[in-house]
């Protein structure tokens, strides 16, 4: 086989299933391996074509039939295209054999193919970007084609039906245009060049009229010259026609204004050395006619000697600038009359590259104010066109960029992310960055400082990423980075750490040192992941990073998704439960420390879930706080508790006071007082428990005013969890509560600790000195009761005396106490 191979004149090479070269003749070596025959066929093939060759060899051997493959050889210089015939060659009955490759040069053919594809692509792109509606009337085949753009011009969707006949279609044409359109179509079919383009109005699907420019030509005729095929394009020129109409209106107005005012217009061509004057220019200078005069001739000769040098210098000084300029000078007419001329000129370069100046002159000798006003109107009209064109670019930039940092905005980011969605052989990653402690800077140093921080962060972010990575600000203190060809997870982690380190560096604003951190969520994806899903995954990872304590990064994972999903289900369930009024009050009785008579009841919230479970507050309050509905739960509990208190009184039971917890958000509700007034609460029967850690040392003036208003309504105030380390004597004086509740952790150890007993005694003494009742919660044993009575505590609450129970449980306890009293 090898000797026969070498004897053949065409390039041939025999390769094994693993693409090792078994043998190759001299013709192959000269044409395709001039540097020497390698061991592995892949050493000769361009790396992007390795997979194709491996697959083709495997299929030839598996299917035992020839195949043809296009692949590129690397033989020095750029890759060289070849067309290879692959033929299976069995070596023995016991193996899979080899494959004989016969490559031929396909470089020129491939180049021609690629050039054709490029031209077709360029033509298709040109049609799409030009907004041309393509149509094709093939009378020979009785087929008509209309592109999607053609339909879009008329407001039609691809599936909308078209007119069934020419007569039906003509009903959509403006009545004033129908006869002209029919004639134009007929003349266009005949090949009349004057009708290759015509304009008409057609009714849009929504009812308004669309101006259409129709371009068409007959591309095929029969033996008698009749049109067999006509192809053309339609263009929506509605805006252009409106602009033309507006231009004509302004032109007529300007021409009339010029005519009435006597303003003369000129245009000077510095390259050709001539100036064109209209009739009014000649009249202003006391001459007749209109036409061309030479630069350096007539006009300069009429200038007043005292103004001539200054005026000419002004023209040449401004000829290189395109900003308009004005001048005022005197001229001596041929009759000796002196007149004052006001001129307004503007230099520009025309499409031929000639430096020109256009301007206007008018005689201001008698009526200068009127002439100036007219000239300003003219200049505004001229400037409007240029300004609209310049504004278009500015609007486009503003629409896609953040005004503060000049980074791409969310709209731009979404477009880029959609375009960068993972495709074969590539990867895309999104880093979602949220600044930590940024709100504190805004709150303490103001929004100008915050803006400065955002600009600095934007620059630092751009300095951390590669040139082809994409950085955007998508809102507030949120930024994103899109990385393509991301490599390993370690590389992304290193990038995130670099960003965190750079953003965390201190910066200065007006002598104030500012520090912010960054939490980063990272999501990467292979082919098939949508842009929307990729961003959602990055958001989930960011949530995990912030929940970990911020200033760190997290990768998206399925466990993170599950955590978010569970939190979402819980939040939905809590919102549903609020609507279904599943949050119910439980009550724990409070007792006079000396007599153990019932003096009140504390209202505690529970979740009576629809599945039958009774859930404690710690299972739902943290999520309710995130949802901002703790105040709503407080309101439901308060309303139910007040109703239960009325029922107890109706049953003859005396509970002097009920206490309910109130959240800071609930207290901040501006409608709270009005809502409480409508409840008609008897004074002294309701107390609001204020959590010490929230209400005391951080109480502002507005909060103190709200507390005073509550006291005026007869609602008592109690400080909950007192002694947990947040409050001070000064804060107690500010709030002036009716009672304070000693934290249960302080009560818990008093039977074993003399030190704790002394601490409790001190708190009770402070309360008595300030006229504040002291309530001990967490009273779990009889020993607790005895010691607290000795220490002088006012009210006791805890499991040793009564456990939290629903409405009916309170009824049972109070009934038993009443029966016991009767027996005594």
UniProtKB/TrEMBL annotation:
GGDEF domain sequence ranges: 426-558
Source superkingdom:
Bacteria
- What PROSITE patterns does the database record attribute to this sequence? EAL, GGDEF, PAC, PAS
PAC domain segment(s): 196-249
Residue intervals of the EAL domain: 567-818
Domain PAS residues, every copy? 145-192, 250-322
Q: What is this protein called?
A: EAL domain-containing protein
Q: Which organism is it from?
A: Neorhizobium turbinariae
